[in-house]
Fold this protein.
Amino acid sequence: MTTPPSDHAVHLLREMLRIRRFEEKCAELYSAGQIRGFLHLYIGEEAVAVGVMQALTPDDAVVATYREHGHALARGIAANALMAEMFGKQEGCSGGRGGSMHVFDAAARFYGGNAIVAGGLPVAVGLALADALAGRRRVTTCFFGDGAVAEGEFHESMNLAALWKLPVLFLCENNLYAMGTHIERALSQQDLPAKARTYGMPADSVDGMDVLAVEEAAGQAVASVRAGNGPFFLEARTYRFRAHSMFDAELYRDKAEVEAWKTRDPLRLLQDRSLVDAAGFAAIDAGVLLEIADAVACAEAGTWEPIAHLTRDVYTPALEGPRERRAR
Amino acid sequence: MSAAPAKRTTYREAVREAIREALLRDPRVFMMGEDVGRYGGAYAVSKGLLAEFGPERMRDTPLSESAFVGAGIGAALGGARPIVEIMTVNFSLLALDQIVNNAATLRHMSGGQLSVPLVIRMATGAGRQLAAQHAHSLEGWFAHVPGLRIVVPATLADARGMLWTALEDPDPVLMFEHQTLYNMEGELAEDAGPVDIDRAAVRRPGGDVTLITYGATLYTTLAAAETLAAERIESEVIDLRTLRPLDMETIFASVRKTRRVVVIDEGWRSGSLSAEILARVAESAFYDLDAPVARVCSAEVPIPYPKHLEDAALPQAPAIVEAVRALMPASVSR
Ligand SMILES: Cc1ncc(C[n+]2csc(CCOP(=O)(O)OP(=O)(O)O)c2C)c(N)n1
Ligand SMILES: [Mg+2]
């Protein structure tokens, strides 16, 4: 007797697979020289973005880092627009100006794409402050890595958000490394929820390789924030399967460690748990591969912004009339 | 110059050799920064040095720019000779408070009691499609601040030689290494060692126009000078080497000879180092000039990601050639 996999499980699997296949393609395109600059892959960590996004509504805001392709896809930014951005084409979601590290989509309330470690946290606090001031019940989710926890901006933001009881979900993706630095060599206190609690906010930790666990923990965290209890800190314990960036020779960790984590591949864990068989997986994969192929075709067909536009979007274009006399 | 045999090396290796020499020569010297040890440095500058000198003297820090730069200041006050590495100039902004409010002021605020013998090294500049948070040239900002010395090695000899001299300086020295120079290869004398950090250098002599630059744009400028030479316009190319204090003597001597001057700077034009240099030329050498002062700077835009736009944003040789042609009398330029 077998129970068929639930639609929801298939949805989660597909979402994670979209990220996996998108990024595998990005790595290929990087080697081919079509994607340039810094490229940071999220492969291995897909369950975190996908699990958390299930708890958010379209009204909520997301702030992410330079390792944000997964978050962007899971948030609903089209693979076409994202791939065009990777190429630097003007059809990209940031008009091609940002590239891999600076994905933005105002309509999706996706506020980057911040490549200064911990630079997104204060911005998330401010987005939440605006909601609080306007009396809106929205949640701002801020993703950041374990490395960010050492920065002053992390501590200042945690304190502000807790002090002012702002609706922020601080989502720490603890993949054990900040570039080549293991968390044990970076943080005197590695119990991150304990650290967060000292600011007077509730905190939890979840297995970041298990998308169902992430979904559940994020659901509870978001519910707490939305209920007006102030910020929440959630640690997702995860691991990046690939190098930090395309320039990293990975001299700081053992292959065996990477292989051990790969046995807990989030895709495989969900597939096993949700009883998606090989044929079912192949069917999902085929659809995903089509989507990615289409995204690459779109990006290739995309156009370069004319050089005459170089200094565009440094300032917001003026509206009609002198601004001091403009009616509000 | 010495007749010592030369060896092939890269800018990266030259900086590494300078760090190595400093660690060997002075037990008070240590280096700290993000991923300088185990990872070998974001630009692989310090690769191998952890094994040679150990984790006390090749010290990995957490991501805490403000704290470890400030700790470098404190360690310098306490008698150490720290070399602090910040990965990229954009990240130095997290440590701006410590650099500007402490490192630059302690000597003065203490009425001359304290000195901060600290060297801070960092990568700077664009050219690798790293977009608007990893590619700016902010060394000109730091050159605004009294109390700091700003040095910019553009050549292998300077990459090899400036660090030791900077460590000997009793005051804070900031050293800017352009990202695109690390792979630059060339010949360096086997016995290359410390160099002065006071004087600008004439990298190409010429009598028709003075081209003033520093860092990676030295090579763009030299390329432009080649093109101009084919048109029989001889450029004198000055590599500033030190942005603060400026060696105005070398600049004035050249301008008096050529009577024309162009500054080439990867920084933005507004409120910039190029503005400072040209204001000083206008203040003190106005009557030596035969043409208005000119400059080629980066476009006033954060660095965009796509290659064609990044290239368009940065000073390029054709723009330098154009700027020079515009200064020449019609009979010479055509
Ligand atoms: C302020 C700042 N310092 C240094 C860097 C260089 N850098 C980029 S990513 C990174 C590691 C960050 O690690 P973590 O926060 O754990 O995120 P992960 O890359 O593991 O997702 C470093 C040091 C930076 N971008 N910003
Ligand atoms: Mg990490």
Q: What stands out?
A: The radius of gyration of chain B is 20 Å. The longest strand of chain B covers residues 81-88. Chain B has a mean pLDDT of 97. DSSP finds 14 helices and 14 strands in chain B.
